[in-house]
Automatic annotation (TrEMBL):
<dbReference type="InterPro" id="IPR038765">
    <property type="entry name" value="Papain-like_cys_pep_sf"/>
</dbReference>
<feature type="transmembrane region" description="Helical">
    <location>
        <begin position="56"/>
        <end position="76"/>
    </location>
</feature>
<feature type="transmembrane region" description="Helical">
    <location>
        <begin position="166"/>
        <end position="183"/>
    </location>
</feature>
<feature type="transmembrane region" description="Helical">
    <location>
        <begin position="617"/>
        <end position="637"/>
    </location>
</feature>
<feature type="domain" description="Transglutaminase-like">
    <location>
        <begin position="476"/>
        <end position="546"/>
    </location>
</feature>
<dbReference type="Pfam" id="PF11992">
    <property type="entry name" value="TgpA_N"/>
</dbReference>
<feature type="transmembrane region" description="Helical">
    <location>
        <begin position="221"/>
        <end position="242"/>
    </location>
</feature>
<dbReference type="Pfam" id="PF01841">
    <property type="entry name" value="Transglut_core"/>
</dbReference>
<keyword id="KW-0472">Membrane</keyword>
<dbReference type="InterPro" id="IPR021878">
    <property type="entry name" value="TgpA_N"/>
</dbReference>
<dbReference type="InterPro" id="IPR002931">
    <property type="entry name" value="Transglutaminase-like"/>
</dbReference>
<feature type="region of interest" description="Disordered">
    <location>
        <begin position="311"/>
        <end position="332"/>
    </location>
</feature>
<feature type="transmembrane region" description="Helical">
    <location>
        <begin position="117"/>
        <end position="136"/>
    </location>
</feature>
<protein>
    <submittedName>
        <fullName>TransglutaminaseTgpA domain-containing protein</fullName>
    </submittedName>
</protein>
<keyword id="KW-0812">Transmembrane</keyword>
<keyword id="KW-1133">Transmembrane helix</keyword>
<dbReference type="InterPro" id="IPR052901">
    <property type="entry name" value="Bact_TGase-like"/>
</dbReference>
Length: 722
């Protein structure tokens, strides 16, 4: 192999080695083999043209044209002339694919699926980088500057990777670049004469390397050391689904601190995932899971640009955890135990768990942040595949306890009621208008929640432009469309303008039952909600987001349960009693004697004058029939509606939704009033709890709810099993 061909091969290998850093970002990795093939053809064409002409311009131009033809054939050959020539239709198709790829990059979390658009970005980007490397290192014999495009390729991969780029991929990219430098140096030396195959140490007596070689080795060692050390001290993107925090700084029992970044974009990406990948599975002894919110972190600092957690000190994990701040013994609580298992791909620095946790049993390097009662991994510890058990409290305050809560401490008021000067005045004005006439902080909080969730005309939409600053809140209040982050941030900011301590929690809703007694939490269960502080109760969850999560019972009006109805329940012996005797005639006046009264009440058979009052009997009969018909109309309508719903017509999705509506209406018939703001999953859990369903009945209802969710949100609804 000639020196030039060897150099071209090393340029091809160096580009592929740097491209390997992109592998953790997408799955599967078949795109890399496609890029390797196109790069190989591009490199071979350059080698052939360079042998034919001494000028470098024809080689670069030919390689660029061949690369374009190859990309056209691979990606848009159906719109190209003769399958390879990029005409107007092919250019338009390229533009559509690039737009799709850009949108997909923003939608999907890592590892993203290799859509056609993402594949074009990956393969096309690697081919362009390969062309630049080949041009610099082979055509113009400048291997050192060729490291710049290789560095750009690796930097993009490392910046997007959830782990900031692993050592393996760095070594691959660095090894490829060093191989390219060695090949270029050997080719340069070969022009001066013969290159000895022995080691450099044999070039001088005594086995020592000549000064230029020693200097080169030192430069290489220093450069490699800088390349390894500098990325370690520079800030980088963290890992995890909702990457809300950096890792703790400091070791030992002395604590250290923890700081965090805004999780807004990551949460929106999770909600827009087409595949609801499982994040956690858990089992619990709680009676109901509708309120089982799994909190990751609390965002308590609003600087006008975004909501972030304050920098806090962390300590070793205590067992049990300290008492819950602000919680009075007079408030009803129930201790529940929940066992969790995180998915093997889910690498999150913060530990999802119910709030407030009382004790956590987990292995690994986990630290405790007391203010938010959260656990954070230390020295690289993440949730990847961990198993843990949490004892938590289900806090059940009454509306009266919340309404009569005393004023919080000055420290709480100072830290959790501040708003930035950049917050538009419309936020505070809207908060005052919505809560006008409210008796206290609790009633103001409930009015804010109800205004967002049902009365204010807001619409839930995860495609709305993300934003968490002051301007984004004002825009959300005007447009009235957004997803959970907008609702939570806006309600918390408005509560603070009313001097109600508030913060925002980020985590997951309860998930869904999988039919085997376990609950499954997926990417699309990611959620954000506001927490407001009430003295004696502590941090209290509210739910302003329509169609997401569950509205807390302490914010709902008290409704009589089916078993506490004011009307007396019918008794079995009532049906056996004889019907009442006919009432006495209106013309029977007391005091005229029983005989006369009896004669007026009972029809005679002797043909006496007057006979039966036929007109009155017919009128009474008609009235009775009309009243019976009116009373029977709801039952007749329900029967007809049930028959139409269950007759099996329409597509599978329509049949599933019809069955779900019939199930909720049947629950209504039995006294379980529907909640318009509840999701399908929450409604099912509520019917199971209030209807005291157990065993197969409860599982059947959860299966129906899962099928209804698929019919509502899946691109192609599939019939539920069972």
């Amino acid at each position: 192999m000639s020196g030039q061909a060897r150099l071209a091969f090393c340029a091809w290998a160096a580009t592929l080695a740097a491209a390997c850093a992109l592998l953790p970002l997408v799955a599967p990795a078949g795109w890399l083999f496609q890029a390797a093939l196109l790069l190989g053809v591009q490199s071979a064409v350059g080698t052939v043209v360079r042998r034919a002409t001494p000028s470098g311009v024809p080689a670069v131009a030919t390689q660029a044209v061949v690369s374009l033809l190859l990309l056209t054939f691979v990606f848009v050959r159906g719109d190209a002339v003769l399958g390879v020539l990029p005409g107007p239709d092919a250019v338009e198709a390229f533009g559509a694919l690039l737009a799709q790829g850009t949108a997909d990059v923003g939608r999907f979390s890592i590892p993203a699926p290799v859509t056609d658009g993402i594949r074009l970005l990956l393969v096309g980007g690697v081919v362009v980088i390969g062309l630049l490397v080949d041009m610099l290192a082979v055509t113009y014999r400048a291997a050192a500057p060729a490291g710049l495009p290789l560095l750009a390729l690796y930097s993009v991969a490392a910046g997007l990777s959830p782990e900031g780029g692993s050592l393996l991929w760095f070594l691959c990219a660095a090894g490829g670049y060093l191989l390219l430098l060695l090949a270029e140096g050997r080719d340069r030396l070969s022009r001066w004469g013969r290159v000895f195959g022995g080691g450099f140490g044999t070039a001088r007596p005594g086995g020592t390397a000549p000064p230029p070689v020693r200097t080169g080795r030192r430069i290489g060692a220093v450069a490699l050391g800088i390349a390894l050390v500098v990325p370690a001290v520079l800030p980088s993107l963290g890992g995890g689904l909702l990457d809300t925090a950096r890792q703790g700084r400091g070791t030992g029992s002395g604590g250290g601190t923890i700081s965090a970044v805004n999780p807004l974009v990551a949460l929106q990406d999770s909600l827009n995932q087409p595949d609801n990948r499982t994040v956690l599975t858990y089992t619990t002894d709680a009676e109901s899971t509708s309120d089982m919110y799994l909190r990751i972190v609390a965002l308590d600092r609003f600087d006008g640009t975004s909501w972030k957690p304050s920098e806090r000190r962390i300590t070793d994990l205590p067992r049990p955890l300290p008492p819950v701040p602000g919680l009075s013994p007079s408030v009803g609580t129930e201790r529940v135990t929940t066992s969790f298992r995180a998915a093997g791909w889910y690498a999150q620095n913060w530990l999802p768990m119910p709030y407030p946790a009382a004790e956590v049993r987990i292995d690994g390097r986990w630290r405790f942040e007391p203010e938010g009662r959260t656990l954070v991994g230390d020295r690289g510890q993440t949730t990847r595949g961990v198993r843990y058990e949490v004892d938590s409290l289900v806090v059940r305050p009454t509306a009266r306890q919340l309404a009569q809560a005393p004023a919080p401490s000055p420290q709480i008021m100072e830290e959790y009621t501040g708003v930035p000067e950049s917050l538009p005045s419309v936020v505070a004005e809207t908060a005052r208008n919505v809560t006008e006439g409210a008796a206290g902080d609790y009633e103001r909080a409930v009015r804010l929640q109800d205004w967002f969730s049902s009365q204010g005309g807001f619409r839930y939409d995860t495609q709305v432009k993300a934003g968490s600053g002051s301007a984004a809140i004002a825009r959300f209040l005007e447009d009235r469309e957004g997803f959970c982050v907008h609702f939570a941030f806006s309600m918390a900011a408005m509560a603070r303008t009313l001097d109600i301590p508030a913060r925002v929690a980020v985590g997951f809703t309860a998930g869904a039952a999988d039919g085997s007694g376990r609950m499954t939490v997926g990417l699309q269960d990611a959620h954000a909600w506001p927490e407001l502080y009430f003295e004696g109760v502590g941090w209290t969850r509210f739910e302003p987001t329509p169609s997401r999560g569950s509205v807390p019972e302490y914010t709902q009006p008290d409704l009589p349960s089916p078993e506490q109805s004011d009307a007396p329940a019918p008794r079995p012996e009532d049906s056996a009693r004889p019907l009442p005797e006919p009432s006495e005639s209106e013309e029977c006046v007391p005091g005229q004697g029983t005989e006369d009264c009896g004669a007026a009440a009972v029809p005679r058979d002797d043909g006496a004058a007057g006979g039966l009052p036929v007109g009155r009997v017919l009128l009474v009969a008609a009235s009775v029939l009309l009243a019976a018909g009116i009373l029977a109309l709801p039952a007749l309508w329900r029967g007809r509606l049930r028959s139409r719903r269950l007759e099996g017509g329409g597509d599978p999705g329509a049949r599933t939704l019809a069955a779900w509506r019939e199930a909720t209406d049947s629950a209504w018939d039995l006294g379980i009033l529907p909640q318009e703001s509840a999701t399908v999953r929450t409604a099912a859990a509520r019917v199971v709890r209030l209807g005291r369903l157990e065993g197969e009945a409860a599982e059947a209802l959860h299966r129906l709810a899962t099928a209804a969710e698929r019919a509502l949100y899946a691109p192609e609804p599939r019939p539920a099993q069972g």
